[in-house]
Amino acid sequence: MVRDSLGRSFSFPEPPRRVVSLVPSITETLFDLGAGETVIGITDFCIFPESMERPRLGGTKNPDVQAIRALAPDLVHMNLEENLERHAREIESFAPVFVSEPKSTGDVSALITNLGGVHGCAARAAAIVAELRTELQQMPQDLFTFACPIWKKPWMWCGGDTYVSNLVGMAGGLNILQERARYPAIELPSVVAMRPNVIFLPDEPYAFRTSDAQELSRASDARVIGPFPGHLFTWHGTRTIQGLRFLREILRN
Q1: Could you tell me if 128 and 149 lie in one domain?
Q2: What beta strand segments (E) does 58-155 contain?
Q3: Angstrom distance (rounded) from CA 240 to CA 219
Q4: pTM attached to this predicted model
């Protein structure tokens, strides 16, 4: 018996055999757990593992629900933030929908454990969680303040209750917007005035470019890191381990 992020209980006497993942990070995690052979449908944004060949079912915000129905899945993975509730309701008319929303590395450990239980990969899940804990123990703890935008026009930033904020916090980062929820829209001069030590520039969901990094460097005394692959900051699951490694290496340089 496991619970999803909506608090709903699920019981899987046997591991699901026909799984659709509408969450790119979950897709990668299922393959890393050894459950990739059960995955029968993915989104257009599922890019890991790179050699994966599965039917593409649209984007995270605009999945082809009828194509999903035609695949007759016995489980569909969705995310509270990445996917839309109306699609979840449509899909629930013909298949169970397991909803995740990790906001911390602790949540990621719990999610991986749950996925291992659901998909019959408990031993592999335990090994991955142990690897994640080892990475956390090795993280630098020199305190620094930071900001992390996720959009421009308007400028939007990661607030204190986001997964990104928690991830950077594992490396000693103190979010200057810790008291703000979710993704507040704040003009750049106001954030610069808070004097963050570091500004991170992931290249998703907004595709920040070198010119954006140069703009921030001119406007602020902060160290600007990026643009860099956004999945290192925004994907949860086994990708969290790579995100921690990226942080450790970049902050020690």
Answers
A1: no
A2: 75-79, 97-100, 144-147, 149-151
A3: 31
A4: 0.95
